[in-house]
Specification:
This protein is of the alpha/beta class. The protein contains eight helices and six strands; from the N terminus they run E-H-E-H-E-H-E-H-E-E-H-H-H-H.
């Protein structure tokens, strides 16, 4: 089975690559859950931005995975144009029975990230897919407008990202063996009533502190921080350069330092 995460970096003009960094952590956690389960699930990270000029490529990316995750940035209170273009090029596909979900990064908690997630899920259902989130939560990460540095993810952000990644693995396992879904959920530590046993800050720090540090490291260390992720994940984890694409002028201009 294939679990494929689609990302669209560089997604904003900030240079922080919020959604790309979150995507790296998602892959880390999804692979962690696959290893714990012992299942035969390949976890892929695919740069989807170049595909918006090719309908066949979009169809290939969408049709050849068992579960699709879309990591979306947020523009102007909702989905950016290039994510909408990618999804629109999927029109006509028959993806009945395939699974799909999404998460988003946004400037703040009330700046349209939930709209970006809802847009993607609606588009997935339009292709016949079965969609889900983590329990009842749309997973959105506000990267500004809080009491931390801009772009900094917090421990609770990392926990929700981990729970969504583990939910994806659970959904694939449950599709193959529905009668074992409850057992898989317990094994992976997933509970729809998660808010009744919410982890404490010390518990989060012990479980996720190092990953959170690595997630935020590029904010201070720059490109060099991605070397750790490249080594850990086994592929070049640096944010891709979109300058060679045929539409760079349509992407946001970098914010002056």
């Amino acid at each position: 089975m294939i679990l494929r995460l689609l990302h669209f970096s560089p997604s904003t003009a900030t240079g922080r690559h919020d959604s790309h960094r979150a995507a790296l952590v998602f892959v880390w956690f999804a692979r962690e859950a696959v290893k714990e389960s012992g299942a035969d699930i390949a976890v892929e990270l695919v740069w989807a931005l170049p595909a918006i000029t090719s309908k066949p490529r979009v169809h290939e990316l969408l049709a050849t995975a068992d579960l699709l995750v879309l990591a979306s940035p947020t523009y102007a209170q909702g989905s950016p144009w290039f994510v909408r273009r990618f999804l629109e090029l999927g029109a006509g596909l028959q993806l009945w029975g395939k699974l799909g979900t999404a998460f988003a990064t946004a400037g703040g908690q009330n700046t349209g990230g939930d709209v970006a997630v809802a847009d993607t899920l609606r588009s997935w259902t339009g292709l016949g897919m079965c969609v889900f989130t983590f329990a009842q939560k749309h997973v959105v990460f506000g990267a500004q407008q809080k009491f931390t540095a801009d772009g900094e993810f917090e421990l609770i952000d990392v926990w929700f990202l981990r729970q969504l990644a583990r939910t994806c693995v659970l959904q694939l396992l449950a599709r193959g063996e529905p009668s074992r879904a409850g057992a898989w959920a317990r094994r992976l530590g997933l509970e729809t009533g998660y808010y009744n046993t919410f982890p404490t800050e010390p518990e989060l720090a012990g479980l996720l502190g190092d990953v959170c540090f690595r997630l935020n490291a590029p904010l201070g260390e720059g490109a060099a921080a991605y070397a750790w992720w490249s080594n850990a994940l086994g592929f070049d984890a640096a944010p891709p350069d979109a300058i060679g694409l045929p539409f760079p002028a349509l992407l946001p201009e970098p914010v002056p330092k």
